[in-house]
Every structure is written in C-alpha cells, then in structure tokens.
Amino acid sequence: MTTMSQPAPVNIATWVRDRAASAPELPAIKPGDTVLSYAELEMAASRFATTLSDRGVAAGDRVAMIMPNVAFFPIVYYAILRVGAIAVPMNPLLKAGEISFVWSDCAAKVAVVFPLFAEEAGKAAGATGTDVIMTVAGEFETALASTEPTHQRSPRHAPVSVVNGDPGARHRPAAAAPPIRRLCVSPPEWR
C-alpha cells in the first residue's frame, strides 16, 4: 500500500521573505491608495518583529490583533509569525468582557490594537494585564522606521500560526487553533 507523505508545515512568513528576495518590487498589498512592495512588507514585518521581541514575545506566545483590514494588518500578522508566535485575530466589534475572555483563554501576551477599538481593548487590558500596542497612523510608521530590524529569521516550520475566536451566538467566544497545513499548502518552489 502506498501512502502519500505530507510536507512539513511551513511558516508562511517565510513566503514573504522569499518573495522579497526574488521579486522585491512586486506589490504585496494594496489597501486603498497605499501600495507596499514585498521588500517593503518584509522590512516592516521584520521591524515590527523586533518590537514584539523587545516586548518579550517568543515562539509559541499568543499575540492578539484587533484591527480592520488595513495596511497594518499584514505587517503585524507576518511579524507575529516571523517570531514564531501565534496570531489571534479578533473581531474588532467585541466588547471588553469578550476581549478579556479571549485574551485570558488564549493567554495573549501582547495585543496589537487599531485606535478605533482602543476603549474596549483598554478595559480588557486592565482586567487581564495584556500588553497593548496601538497602531496609530503616523506614529506606527515612525516607530517602525526608527526600529532596527534585529529579528532576521523566521522559524521555517510552525505547526500552528493562528487561533481564530468566534463568539457567534454563544455567551463566550470559542477558539480554534487549526494546524497550518489546513490553512495552506506551500508551493514546492517556495520551500
């Protein structure tokens, strides 16, 4: 009987790094009028990975994200994966009690929050002690530009890269941590 072997799970942050090396000028993200090339996305993610490392985030730690689909989202997401941490993207419309529950349940070390959602996140941080990083336009970019990217590597393999919380109609959010294999299959040319 022949069995098909499954490839080892790949940290998808390496895809950005590899694409930045092979085609740095290609557009990686285009939210609105903003265009970030793969090289720019890689540099920004590397700089924010340094910020996360400086805050004590390490491989396996959970980092919550409360933000809409803005240019900061992929920068933060790939930075989290770059340090080997686990991203916990959250519905930005959750209230403080729900946020506190998710942060406590997943043991979020740090939360990266878009300013529009700061009030509820601040209440949750007070209850959980989670360190909050705000992504204030202008300030976030300035902080990135002044950060030397010292975190230069991404763990090649990451069995879990994201925890999804879904409060649905229940009283408390539920979370699931899908193996990276279920999120993507790496193209052979990117391994």
State the assembly state of the protein chains: single chain
Largest sheet descriptor = 4 strands, parallel
H-E string: HEEHEHEHEHEHEEH
The CATH topology corresponds to Rossmann fold
Strand elements, count: 8
Provide the CATH architecture: 3-Layer(aba) Sandwich
| Estimated structural class | alpha/beta
Distance between the first and last residues' Cα: 28 Å
Count of structural domains: 1
Low-confidence stretches: 179-191
Computed CA radius of gyration, to the nearest angstrom: 17 Å
How many distinct helices? 7
Strand order of the largest sheet: 4-3-5-6
Shape field:
globular
CATH top level?
Answer: Alpha Beta
Helix amount, in percent?
Answer: 25-40%
Walkthrough of the structure:
This protein is α/β, with parallel strands linked by helices. The protein has a single domain (about 15-150), classed as Rossmann fold (3-Layer(aba) Sandwich). It contains 7 helices and 8 strands, in the order αββαβαβαβαβαββα. The strands form 3 sheets. A 4-stranded parallel sheet has the order 4-3-5-6, sandwiched between helices. The chain has a two-stranded antiparallel sheet with strand order 1-2. Helix 3 links the parallel strand 3 (about 60-65) and strand 4 (about 85-90). It is globular.
